[in-house]
From TrEMBL:
Ranges for domain Tetracyclin repressor-like C-terminal: 85-211
A Pfam cross-reference name: TetR_C_23
The UniProt record lists the keyword DNA-binding: yes
Record keywords: DNA-binding
Listed name of the protein: DNA-binding transcriptional regulator, AcrR family
Domain of life: Bacteria
Source species: Flavobacterium anhuiense
Molecular function GO terms recorded: DNA binding
Keyword Metal-binding: no
Amino acid sequence: MATKKKVITKDDIVSKYMEEVLEKGQKPKSVYHFAKENDFTEAEFYAFFGTLEGLEKEIFRLFFENTVTLLHKNEEYQGYDMKNKMLSFYFTFFEILTANRSYVLQSLKIDRNPLKNLVQLTTLRNSFKEYVSEILTDDYRLEQEKFQKFQEKAIQESSWLQLMLTIKFWMEDESPAFEKTDIFIEKSVNASFELMNVAPMNHLIDFGKFLFKEKVYSR
């Protein structure tokens, strides 16, 4: 009796791809070569991914998804303020990156053009920006509604830049257990939330509105 072939899953393909990149030090030449060398069909690959590039992006999105899943398993997390939610995200996310450090370092340095390597992070970027928007609280939101949309985008973009800088620091960190990265995370997140203090900005906007009214109605 013929042995029934195992049904390949999305996780199987991700795992096989990461292993191949690590073992060979380069990306597969094509979906055809990748599927053939790992004993599954192109059709099975395309059931989950449209391209190898899409698979690369999905790996980093899965790091993010696993981070958020772990956060929500912690009952205390829901009661955290925005800053502590962000700190929890960072520490959990970098634990996951550290568990996959060899792949992350290899994949983000595999092409001589740094911009091509960063394309892998586009899906992560979208997911992270959504996360920042979800945890944004009124404590860090301007009172004037017409400025809130602009402010939210600015916070999303600056938060993404901060995450990218932290990834770069972590990639170059040679300290035991990456303890310097932990210090970097705590200090950078604390500093960013100090800069996000909206009280001075609200006062500035109110002052601007006062000057505008005085100028208009004093004519």
